[in-house]
Design brief:
Elements (H helix, E strand, L loop, with lengths): L2 H4 L6 H18 L2 H8 L3 E5 L3 E5 L3 H10 L1 H10 L6 E5 L10 H4 L31 E2 L18 H12 L7 E6 L5 H15 L5 E5 H13 L3 H10 L3 E5 L8 H16 L3 E6 L11 H7 L3 E5 L4 H15 L5 H10 L4 H17 L6 H17 L2 H12 L3 H4 L6 H17 L4 H7 L4 H15 L4 H14 L4
Parallel strand pairs: 2-3, 4-6, 5-8, 5-9, 6-7, 7-8
Antiparallel strand pairs: 1-2
Helix pairs in contact: 2-3, 2-5, 7-8, 9-10, 10-11, 13-14, 13-15, 14-16, 15-16, 17-19, 19-21, 19-22, 20-21
Length: 478
């Protein structure tokens, strides 16, 4: 036997790089498209020797996520190519020369990610576990609302891809995105995911996350305190990313609409990123200034629809995993089949099943799930625009003739608005149908819904009345 037969031929750098290309190709075929694009695609081959392959990542955050969630997949695919004992190292400065090439390039080598040391550019205050992220101004971002935490289905694939593209700076059109969906379908999740991604990967950019109501109230305060110049400078000059939710709230607020339109002009001229979310398309929002409507319609509008069965099942799987629940597959299939309205309903059903099983110390099976879900089903069957109308009339001692009349008396108007709001919340009827049931146009129905949503953010008689009616409906007392 010759010496050559004993000694394993060293793996050339070119061959190692070709192996890594094959690994990425296989992962692209086996992973969901959004997972591959976000986590694997940005990872590149840098260098190698007989025992180590060195890979570059755009930042340490991505490197840590790769090590936690995809390192095993990398090792498995490399083993499939005959590289069983190869070590993988991650570097955080993309495509910098490693140490052995430093002499010929004169460049500083990339540094491997270390759990024990913090690089100078990372030495900023980190969030405590479980705490929500605070952008430059506005509300906190929900820590669970990230791209990695979003379950993508046919109903949301386009909206997800568009949001990720905007966040990564690869958007093909103007940097403006409008996320459109009903309640509980994921528009807030994706809007905040953009904020999380940018705050993580572009620490110098200023992200402003607010609702349309916040923007309105802040402007009113600025006018009262004679600080409107500071307000304008804040949004026009100091903002890199504006995330503005609940656009439909601006209905009828002409002064706010004009100020926002001018602000958008400044941001768009500067190439800033803008994300809107709303339950209605701009053209369907009543009393919206033409100048603002045209700007809201400038960018890409994506609609998130209700998830199909497969997506609902995946959502339940992820919710169960994230919360540490053990729920048999047949039970999750049952829940996915029966609960088809939105993600919040799915989560409510899952938590209800787990809670009942824990409290009664019973096994989680189909019988237990049926006992929980039958309440949802009973209530859904009994809820209609007509039943809500009857409930509201009974509670406010008015007739059904009164509630559909042209009367503008407050004792009629407020119950009518509540009935329209509750019809939108608890039925699947389109706005035109709901409005028709009250002898109103769909624009008037939107106005009624916005009026009640505004009252619910206060503590007053109207908000308490709506909550009382909500409990009645959810308890099936129609």
């Amino acid at each position: 036997m010759t010496v050559k037969e004993f000694v394993k031929e060293p793996m050339s750098e070119e061959r190692m790089e070709n192996c890594w290309i094959k690994v990425k190709q296989r992962l692209e075929e086996s992973l969901p498209g959004h997972s591959y694009k976000m986590w694997v695609e940005p990872v590149h081959f840098m260098d190698s020797d007989d025992s180590t392959i060195k890979l570059s990542c755009p930042n340490s955050f991505l490197a840590r996520r790769i090590k936690s969630n995809y390192l095993f997949r990398f090792q498995k695919e490399l083993a499939g190519l005959g590289l069983n004992d190869i070590r993988i190292e991650f570097y955080t400065e993309q495509r910098k020369a490693p140490e052995k090439k430093m002499a010929e390039t004169g460049k500083t080598p990339a540094r491997p990610v270390s759990a024990g040391r913090v690089r100078p550019e990372e030495a900023r205050q980190m969030s405590l576990p479980g705490m929500n992220t605070r952008p430059e101004t506005g509300r906190f971002l929900n820590n669970g609302y990230t791209f990695d935490g979003f379950v993508v289905g046919k109903n949301s694939n386009f909206a997800y891809s568009a949001s990720l593209s905007l966040a990564r700076g690869t958007f093909d059109t103007d940097n403006i995105l409008y996320l459109l969906s009903g309640t509980g379908l994921g528009k807030s999740h994706l809007a905040q995911a953009v904020g999380h991604y940018i705050l993580t990967n572009n620490v110098t950019e200023k992200v402003y996350y607010i609702t349309a109501e916040d923007f309105t109230n802040e402007m009113i305060e600025a006018l009262k305190n004679k600080t409107i110049y500071r307000f304008k400078e804040k949004y026009r000059r100091c903002c890199d990313v504006l995330i503005l939710e609940d656009i439909h709230f601006l209905s009828g607020k002409q002064a706010t609409q004009k100020e926002l339109a001018l602000t958008l002009d400044h941001l768009l001229d500067s190439g800033k990123k803008i994300i809107f979310s709303g339950s209605h398309a701009p053209a369907s929002i009543p009393k919206l200034e033409e100048s603002l409507e045209s700007r809201l319609s400038l960018g890409l509008m994506t609609e998130i629809e209700a998830p199909d069965f497969n997506t609902r099942f995946k959502i339940l799987e992820k919710k169960a995993t994230d919360n540490g629940y053990y729920v048999p597959g047949e039970v999750m299939e049952f829940l996915a089949q029966e609960l088809s309205c939105n993600v919040r309903q799915l989560e409510s059903g899952l938590k209800g099943v787990v809670a009942k099983g824990s409290i009664l110390n019973e096994p989680i099976d189909i019988n237990l799930a049926e006992s929980v879900i039958k309440n949802f089903a009973k209530i859904e069957k009994r809820i209609s625009v007509a039943s809500i109308k009857r409930l509201v009339c009974k509670e406010f001692s008015i007739s059904e003739k009164d509630i559909v009349s042209p009367s503008r008396k407050q004792r009629i108007v407020k119950p009518r608005q509540m009935a329209i709001y509750l019809s939108r919340k608890y039925t699947k009827e389109p706005l035109k149908v709901i409005g028709k049931n009250f002898n109103r146009y769909h624009a008037t129905a939107i106005y009624a819904i916005n009026a009640i949503e505004k009252e619910l953010k206060k503590t007053n008689a109207i908000s308490e009345q709506v909550r009382y009616l909500t409990r009645k409906i959810e308890e099936g007392k129609l």
